[in-house]
Amino acid sequence: MRHLLHLLILSLISLTAFGQKADYIPTEYILEVVPDSSMHIDGKTNINTFDCIFKNSIKSNLTLTQNIFNELTEVQHSGLEFCVTCFDCGIALMNKEFTELLYAEQYPIIVMKLLSMYIYQGEDKTIKGKGKVSMIIAGVERIEDITYSVPHSEGKNFQIIGTKQINILDYGITPPKKMMGMVKVDQHIDVNFNFKFIVDDH
Question: What is the set of domains in the chain, with CATH numbers?
Fold first, then answer.
């Protein structure tokens, strides 16, 4: 009986250790951005709004462990580079003003890099997530908190959808004024993202 009890305890310890080890086995992903639905920036002035959509496809490398389903966990991400002039605001004049707003001539690239992730089930039974990202806009880097939903998964593949409101003053951007100050750009813009995570089998 004592021998059987010892075997049971050893089995439980082994299972626990294996489970913990499995949580930390790295998985390689391709983080994919698809045109029209995966990245757009919304803003407003005192008289209208603008919605600028990223029109290119880009991919980056991401390494994470299954521990992101247990707690906020660091991830290794090569980062996404969004060319400012590749955003389409619908009309040429708005495109020009958008690139001027973000100082594209001097700082042509926006960089977004995931630093940590935590995916969990919310009280309403939906799958949600939170984490931290590094954002570089107009040459200024800041660490931002993000929240998102996880509406779809297939095996180990999944996607995250969310919106992060940022204050452009934090990035050293002065909201411009047009028409002798009558048109003013709001200092807050919304960065909307929809990213796909696909297991890299190669």
Answer: 26-199 (2.40.128.110)
Residue 46's pLDDT band, with cuts at 50, 70 and 90, is low
Section 155-173 average pLDDT? 92
Both tokens assigned to 149: 């939903």
Q: Which two tokens stand for residue 10?
A: 């050893």
Q: Is residue 173 within 8 Å of 196, Cβ to Cβ?
A: no
Task: Give the per-residue pLDDT at 99.
Answer: 92
Tokens of 197: 């995570």
Burial 168-179 (b: 16+ CB within 10 A, else e): beebebeeeeee
Q: What is the pTM of this model?
A: 0.82
CA-to-CA separations, 163 to 16, 22, 57, 117, 132, in angstroms, rounded: 37, 31, 19, 15, 13
Residue pLDDT, tens place only, 123-143 = 888 899 999 999 999 999 999
Give the DSSP letter of residue 85.
G
- Sign for the pseudo-dihedral over CA of 44, 50, 56, 59: positive
CA distance 103 to 51: 18
